[in-house]
């Protein structure tokens, strides 16, 4: 069967996740509501938000309104949110409940620890709260974000699996050692900043491949991500862009094209870089 915007892959938890997600970082509540609704109308079935983004309620409302209007059931939509601070067991328990409440969706398909700050004790307390919430049915699958190998080893014998690590992954930031380790542990890699946050669309190799395939640089970057087996989370608050970003299933990058993109690794930090911060 050919791939499409609703194609999904299995997580270690056994749950399916649509391979293309939709990002909402830096979207105001108003932008998040409108863009998530437009994304769902365009066929996206996987929404990524976070406590940090202060738009969880807007994302949840957009999903609920879309379901009511379209008849698409809750089970066909995949909703992810993230814990902002590893601030102790009680804090994390409360934050999870608050995220479930704000979403209005009854449960979270995926819940991630947003980053490894500030220390091991905080990270492990958060993970304990997450496992409790899985047992209570509030969370279906769990994972982490911006975790380096040194952080993942702390979670080597958990009750529930670490299903996902969400990392900044694109040709200009490839994190090869981390990718290899996560693959070895069967942890699915979600790619944040899959468009390199629009910082490299003028790269000559990217431009040439874009002309060769008659696709935009954004579409080439997303195709690279899918062919790598990642789960990219492109964000746009513009309807025409979010529509275009999903049209990546009618062309294929050759091995040579992939190798050319692979040659672009430059450790480009587009936002934050907890893995590169030796203090954590
Ligand atoms: N776990 C983490 O620490 C972390 C960190 C960052 C992001 N994330 C998640 O990953 C998602 C994606 O990352 P991101 O939002 O940082 O970056 P991104 O998706 O790589 O890039 C988004 C930027 O590209 C622009 N854009 C989108 N489509 C375009 C197109 N076709 N042509 C030209 N420009 C285009 C967007 O502008 P417009 O909106 O104006 O179109 C926006 O400025 C986030 O939204 C968030 O859900 C997670």
From TrEMBL:
UniProt KW Oxidoreductase keyword: yes
Domain of life: Eukaryota
Keywords, sorted A to Z: Oxidoreductase
Site (Lowers pKa of active site Tyr): 82
Positions contributing to substrate binding: 114
Pfam families linked to this entry: Aldo_ket_red (PF00248)
Gene3D superfamilies hit by this protein: NADP-dependent oxidoreductase domain
Active-site residues per Swiss-Prot or TrEMBL entry: 53
GO molecular function: oxidoreductase activity
Domain NADP-dependent oxidoreductase: 20-266
Sections of the chain in a coiled coil: none
SUPFAM superfamilies: NAD(P)-linked oxidoreductase
PANTHER family: 2,5-DIKETO-D-GLUCONIC ACID REDUCTASE, ALDO_KETO REDUCTASE FAMILY PROTEIN
Family (UniProt): Belongs to the aldo/keto reductase family.
Protein name: NADP-dependent oxidoreductase domain-containing protein
Organism: Wallemia ichthyophaga
